[in-house]
Predict the structure.
Amino acid sequence: MPEGHTIHRIARDHRKFFSGERIAFSSPQGRFVEGAKKIHRRPLQNVDAYGKHLFYEFSSRRYLHIHLGLYGKFKTRRLPLPAPRGAIRLRAVGERHGFDLRGPNQCELIDGKQYRAITDRLGPDPLRDDADRNRAWERISKSRTPIGGLLLNQAVISGIGNVYRAELLFETKIDPRRKGCDITQPEFEQLWKLMLRWLPLGVRTNRIITADAKQLGKTPATLLQSERLLIYKKNNCLDCGAPVIRAALANRTIYYCKRCQH
Ligand SMILES: [Zn+2]
């Protein structure tokens, strides 16, 4: 599933490509024909991301809400787009660019009230200027759920997925099974600080990078794929060499080092 940085990157690109344009929308697959008609050629005012949710804002507080889920995918390119093939839920054709959206978990039109209902349910998003990290700390510090589960809960913090979760806990030396209420405030501050550093880098480079490129004598762009992460899907711990533990936590596989993380 894409993590928050991917969604923010799409928002950034689509804002740049389509803002102010009157986009031609269609639903080649047929499952969003009525919705596409309602926003067809309406000026697009803004594109914004909140956690893993995307919002395209049109006039009179009408929003196109998209959540990619596990299988959703955007393909954005310069015009002309090829003839539609397969299950394209939504096709957008702007002045110079267009996109095809396939397999989203959600693709719906909503009003301002529904927009607020969705965003009110989400925890602070470290990629947003309006993020209030105290809301996340309050939830975590009162919870008996393992921190590895809390980091994936979008109502606690929004935008973190399975890769960042493992990397954040490895870098801060926290055992993913530790309860939220046993996380200290300095540890939480350290986690948040890392998110503020890693997520914007993810948006910029369009990939998850947690390794210190400088230390490897490289730049983020020249890191090999095998060098970008610290623990996710690794066999041995980078710090102590012990075998990396793989375990299910909150229905996803977590990777951690028993020796280094407590
Ligand atoms: Zn280790």
Q: What stands out?
A: The mean pLDDT is 97. The longest strand covers residues 44-50. The pocket of zinc ion is lined by residues 237, 239-240, 242, 257, 259-260 (CB under 6 Å).
